[in-house]
Amino acid sequence: MSKFIVTGGAGFIGSHVVDKLIDLGHEVVVVDNLLLGKKEFVNKRAKFIKVDIRDLNKLIKVFKDADAVFHLAADPRLQISVEDPILTHDINVNGTLNVLVAASKQKVKKVIFTSSGAVYGDQEVLPVKESFELRPLSPYGLHKVMGEMYCRLFSELYGLETVCLRYFNVFGPRKTGSGSYPLVIPAFLQMRKDGKPMSIVGDGQATRDYVHVNDVAQANILAWESDIKKGEAINIGSGTETSVNQIADYIGGERINIPARIGEMKRVRADITLAKNILKWKPTINLQAGINALKSEWGID
């Protein structure tokens, strides 16, 4: 049995990572300030410590005797990063630096860092490969680029093993449709549940690459078990491009169009060759099946 720290372990993706680790018989400590996470998402067999990743001294204490850190804590709201780049930089960049410093000081073997497909921005060629030039369109995307660079630097300077997983659009249970800028699938489900038409940003032709949260959690396990240790980045997506209009079709119901937002990519599709070859990972839950399961969960016909 290993001891693992999961920052952001009360959040949507982090709580699923915690569940997988617990099911494998490991000791898990959840570190979360509950800014976006929910206490009810935390596995009852995990130890919960309310700590903000911007508090380095507390992190150092919490990381004692840990084998690895799964670093998922962040403010991932792209539009919030546009509106308040200073606050989100503090959380996403300084917080990540604190995690790496604490892990290094406590001789943690490996940090699995949550990055994002937002690092790529708009690309002329799809699918996007890890070797492509990074062109983030938002402060959030830039924060993840900086986090990746810090991971590589800590591997080179301090011998801390790191791996960066670039998640694309993660969907599945526990992702709520509330808040100022919710993700499209839970937002549409919430609108349907409330008897409102689905609000499609722009013309609805923008595409994303959707990957189920259970598959993302499994990618984290495989990243820990892998030989990757120098901050290498790996795409975690489905390899399939899906438009907002197609999502609305899968969910079904009335729709309206609203103005487009700045800082958002037009088309997204991940090349997941490295994940398949290096991690021996591939997605197992397709988008339509996953949406159908969510519709049932939300009580939507």
Q: Would you mind describing this structure in some detail?
A:
The structure is a single chain. The chain has 10 helices and 13 strands. The strands form 4 sheets. The protein has a 7-stranded parallel sheet, with helices on both faces. A two-stranded parallel ribbon has the order 7-10. It is globular, with a radius of gyration of 18 Å. The protein has 301 residues and is α/β, with parallel strands linked by helices. Strand 5, helix 5 and strand 6 form a beta-alpha-beta unit. The termini are far apart. It has 2 domains: 3-170 and 213-236, Rossmann fold; 172-208 and 241-268 and 285-298, Alpha-Beta Complex (UDP-galactose 4-epimerase, domain 1). It has helices spanning 12-23, 56-62, 78-83, 85-105, 139-158, 184-193, 213-225, 244-251, 273-279, 287-298, and strands at residues 3-7, 27-32, 47-50, 68-71, 110-116, 161-167, 169-171, 198-201, 207-208, 210-212, 230-236, 242-243, 255-258.
